[in-house]
Design goal:
The complex is a heterodimer of chains A (244) and B (346). Chain A is mainly beta. Chain A has one domain. Chain A has three helices and 15 strands. In chain A, 36% of the residues are buried. Chain B is mainly α and 346 residues long. Chain B folds into two domains: 148 residues, Cytochrome Bc1 Complex, Chain D, domain 2 (Orthogonal Bundle), CATH 1.10.760; 138 residues, Cytochrome Bc1 Complex, Chain D, domain 2. Chain B starts with a helix and ends in a 12-residue tail after the last helix. The chains are: A mainly beta (244), B mainly alpha (346). Chains A and B meet through loops of A and helix 1, helix 4, helix 5 and helix 7 of B.
Chain lengths: 244, 346
């Protein structure tokens, strides 16, 4: 029996050693939708775009995917990280990344939208489930991001504007890569790092005249223009850390 | 030492017992048959294995009008087994409330060997194929969100989905994957033609059929490539444009002028039973189809290169060609009770 005890003790030591060497941490990303700095409230609240147009926002949804956390010494690509942000659903505004190797990170890169592989992979689940209103049936593929609302400058029924931006095939590829410089984020097993991202939907309207471009619901030149705009919608707000 | 051995043996045994009692009930795995001499299918189910239970769930869904907004039409309404899973009495398919689509419902045959789906290739993966008719206003006019809601309200369906996918909450993904399990097994490879190729005893061709095959290989095979009878490409076969439909074909999807008036080359298997013909169902007889290729082609700018040499056939040759096309009829497919309305589950 003495031998068994010794064996267990050895196992315990090895496990503890391994835990120490491969210590993993957690990063919580909080997403705050805003319109030119003001918190985004869906519905009747009017906002004014850079062009001076009065706008209300009805719906805002966006995929982020292929997240990669990069530090001076190492990088950590997060597998299957496609996540749907929905301004209407506060649960989707927090995104937790587990099992990050301990270390310092100062760059976050990710895609706004989904890559072509995801677009041809058939019926997917979770955040990619086709019931989430982000899948086109008439011409299969995902909508990368959606922004709809009203503005008096739109000569449309109920003054509606509708942007369903998607397309994964040339010449209209609407996924956009974004990279954000972070203040040094320390990941370790004791604390939980928190990163707040601001997502400013006002960027969608940069150089867009709503009176003429207000219904973009298929891959097109206009969709590409809006994709170039939403590429800049994410900004770093602050980073924080809290004890687990 | 003896104690230790006993300890190890009992531990292993108890672990095994725990593992077995918690293991899911074994589903009946189905093997996807690839006939000898055929290319490998382009689709394979990698997300969940093909199972008998999955196939039967897909079959029930295929025949259930619950998939349409007012529960009036099912997939089978336009994809009737005895017509090779298309619809014989309408040139363009009809949806709920008698609404009229703009295209002829395609036959569902050997779908796992196709690259793109629909006449214009708008669907890029068979797993999402059912979404198009489900949501098209002229077809089922439903939303997948609502179908999933209706399925979750049925304890029978929840139980079946749980059995197949290990989740009693029905998701859009699982709904589509179940339908996929059924439709990819609607496979036809036992026509007289196949028996002829395999040199079976009942695969002897008549002189007319033999001659028809020669003519087919001379004039048609570039697009209708054996053994699937399609080259999986989009071609302009020279049909005059219908002024009421103004259907530009694949260009609608790609917005590329080079794709103007091109349509997916359909398989010719079971063609005897899959009238009407062409993307808009304009021909009801095979003779009309053959006459189109011999004397009806409109020679526009992007006519398929494979049709640049005119096809010249005399009346006897036309008859022989049609005699050969009839050898593509597969009764084992048209009458297969595994594909038919699932009476036992209703």
């Amino acid at each position: 029996m003495k031998r068994t005890y010794r064996f267990f003790l050895l196992c315990l030591c090895i496990t503890l050693f391994a835990l120490n060497v491969f210590a993993k941490g957690v990063l919580v990303i909080k997403i705050q939708p805003v319109f030119r700095g003001k918190p985004l409230i869906l519905g009747d609240k009017p906002y004014v775009s850079e062009n001076g147009d009065s706008i209300t926002i009805e719906e805002f949804k966006s995929y982020i995917s292929a997240l990669n956390l990069i530090g001076p010494k190492s990088s950590f690509p997060i597998k299957n990280s496609a996540h749907l942000i929905n301004a209407e659903d506060s649960a989707t505004l927090t995104y937790t990344i587990n099992n990050i190797p301990s270390g310092v990170y100062n760059l976050l890169t990710f895609n706004i939208g989904l890559d072509s592989v995801t677009n041809v992979s058939g019926a997917l689940g979770g955040d990619l489930d086709p019931t989430l209103g982000m899948y086109w049936a008439w011409n299969t593929g995902y909508i990368n991001a959606k922004l709809t609302g009203h503005s008096n400058v739109c000569q449309t029924l109920h003054h509606t504007f509708e942007f369903h931006i998607g397309g994964y095939m040339q010449p209209y590829v609407t996924v956009r890569k974004t990279s954000l410089q972070l203040p040094d984020i320390k990941i370790n097993s004791e604390t939980q790092a928190i990163l707040t991202l601001i997502v400013d939907v006002a960027t969608w309207f940069n150089d867009i005249h709503l009176s003429s471009i207000n219904n973009v619901v298929a891959p097109s030149k206009e969709a590409m223009q809006i994709a170039d705009n939403y590429m800049k919608m994410f900004q770093i707000s602050q980073s924080d850390e809290s004890v687990k | 030492m003896k104690n230790l051995q006993l300890f190890i043996v009992t531990s292993i045994l108890s672990c095994l017992i725990i593992f077995v009692s918690f293991a899911p009930i074994e589903l009946k795995k189905t093997t996807f048959i690839v006939p000898t001499g055929w290319p490998q299918p382009l689709y394979s189910s990698t997300k969940y294995p093909l199972t008998e239970e999955g196939f039967q769930l897909g079959r029930t869904l295929f025949y259930d009008p619950l998939l349409s907004r007012d529960s009036s039409v099912s997939c089978a309404s336009c994809h009737n087994q005895s017509n090779s899973f298309t619809r014989v009495d309408h040139a363009q398919s009809r949806g709920i409330e008698g609404r009229k689509g703009s295209r002829n419902a395609p036959a569902l045959i050997n779908l796992a060997w196709k690259k793109l789906y629909m006449w214009d290739g708008a669907v890029n993966n068979i797993e999402v194929l059912a979404l198009a008719p489900m949501t098209n206003p002229n077809e089922m006019d439903e939303t997948i969100e609502h179908v999933v809601k209706k399925l979750n309200a049925s304890s029978t369906y929840r139980q079946q989905f749980d059995q197949v996918f290990g989740d009693s909450v029905v998701s859009g993904q699982h709904l589509l994957l179940a339908i996929t399990q059924f439709v990819i097994q609607l496979n036809s490879f036992n026509a007289k033609y196949d028996k002829y190729i395999r040199k079976d005893i009942d695969g002897k061709f008549t002189n007319e059929e033999e001659h028809g095959l020669q003519l087919f290989r001379q004039h048609c095979v570039a697009c209708h490539t054996e053994p699937l009878f399609s080259n999986n490409q989009f071609e302009n076969n020279g049909l005059p444009v219908d002024n009421t439909l103004q259907d530009i074909g694949r260009m609608k999807v790609t917005q590329n002028p080079a794709d103007s008036l091109t349509f997916n080359v359909p398989s010719l298997r079971n063609i005897e039973y899959s009238a009407p013909y062409m993307h808009d169902g304009r021909f009801t007889e095979l003779a009309q189809v053959v006459n189109h290729y011999t004397s009806g082609i409109v020679r526009s700018g992007n006519l398929s290169k494979k049709l640049s040499v005119p096809i010249l056939l005399n009346e006897d040759e036309k008859k022989d060609l049609i005699a050969f096309l009839m050898t593509l009829t597969d009764r084992d497919y048209l009458l297969n009770t595994r594909y038919s309305f699932p009476k036992e589950t209703k």
